Amino acid sequence: MERALKLKVSKELKYLVEIHGTKTISKKADIAPSTLESMLKESTKLVPNEIWEQTRLNLRMQLDWKVVEDSNLKRTVELLKAVQKNNMSIGICERAGAGKTETYKYYEREFVNVINVECGSQWTRKEFLKKMLRCAGLSPVGNSNRMMEKFIRHVRQMKKPLIIIDQADKLKDHALDLYIDMYNALSGKAGFVLSGADGFKKRIERGLKYGKVGFAELYSRLGQKFIQFGALTLEDVKLMCKANGMDDELTIAETFNKCGGDKRVVRRQIEKYILIKEKAA
Predict the structure, then answer these.
(1) What is the reported pTM?
(2) Stretch 7-19: mean pLDDT, rounded?
(3) Helix %, strand %, coil % for the chain, to 5?
(4) Residue 185 CB partners (closer than 8 Å, separation 6+)
(5) Is there a domain that residue 91 lies in?
(6) Nearest to 115 by CA among 28, 195, 180
(7) What is the CATH number for 190?
């Protein structure tokens, strides 16, 4: 990793430590406190390259992209605050590219006591538990029961925790059952967000229709509804573009017309614009 990138990682670490504290960040990054201290001091030669890269990945840093407070992000942040404060449980279901994952990462970065998990499609029940523990800054060792007990015990000691299970639509049914187990153990002690793409709602509805085991219980714990994001507006796209280096009004308008409400398309268009601009300079 180049020194310039290491300095960006160090700068982001300083920001995170100021909000969350050294202990939390070292655990979530899976590095020793002494190593974190060296990184905060910008000791780029003392810390191996692989540790810098590991830290960047474990903390899901977006070093060359500025997340903006667009209309959806503002609304969702207020919703997440309410869920966290009142120990609520909600479901969010929205099309791919709407900005769900980006919003959850932003919330985890800016607010304390947030456990944010991005699910994988091939995860077993045990792999899901391991990821939950890692995202909570805990060591994922032992059998499934031991890991579950460890996670529950840890969350109960936290002050107003929020557990975000993102891309839950990727989970198999047996792994999704873990949400019910966690909710039952932590009801009134933690807030929960179960989030997925638009197909997730249809999957739950099919499960209800055909009486699949656990689906009625799951839906009940989500308040029997899914919350959706609003449509991406031209003003939202303008905010994204200008914050990340695209300042030509015509190009911004074209980007909005091409994106189809997909933030990932907007990002690709911005990155393409910046690349062409740099080559022409």
Answers:
(1) 0.93
(2) 96
(3) 60, 10, 30
(4) 152
(5) yes
(6) 28
(7) 3.40.50.300
